[in-house]
């Protein structure tokens, strides 16, 4: 059974940092590209970042470039998102998602990130 479980969210002050994790089970993470996607209150889904199977290719939405870093540990079947210099506009529910072709086929339940003073 495929499962993705996010963790690491919380309340942080502007300028602070958080590290999100996504634990994968039921499949080999090394076989799949992965996304981080977020949804801010009252808004639609926003793609945040992509990483290829080996971790050598990464992509980011412009608003997080230079502040967020996506990574993976295939041996531990874990995906991560290091978020630095957080801003109030980064407040959202963050999801990891497994890429399948041009789509995503599995999502986690999300972890809440709130950036506020």
Protein architecture, described:
The chain is built from no helices and eleven strands. With 117 residues, the chain is mainly β. Strands 2, 4, 5, 6, 9, 10 and 11 form a seven-stranded mixed β-sheet that branches. Strands 1-3-8-7 form a four-stranded antiparallel β-sheet, with no helix packed on it. The mean pLDDT is 97.
- What is the mean pLDDT? 97
N/C terminus separation: 40 Å
The amount of beta strand, in percent, is over 45%
Content-based structural category: mainly beta
Question: For the CA atoms, what is the radius of gyration?
Answer: 13 Å
User: Which residues sit in consecutive blocks of at least 5 with pLDDT less than 50?
Assistant: none
How much helicity do the residues have? under 10%
Can you write the helix and strand succession as a string? EEEEEEEEEEE
How many alpha or pi helices? Answer: 0
What does the overall shape look like? Answer: globular
**Count of DSSP strands:** 11
Main sheet overview:
7 strands, mixed
What is the element layout, followed by pairings?
Layout: E1 3-7, E2 10-12, E3 18-25, E4 34-39, E5 45-51, E6 58-60, E7 68-73, E8 78-83, E9 92-100, E10 103-107, E11 111-115
Parallel strand pairs: 2-11
Antiparallel strand pairs: 1-3, 3-8, 4-5, 4-9, 5-6, 7-8, 9-10, 9-11
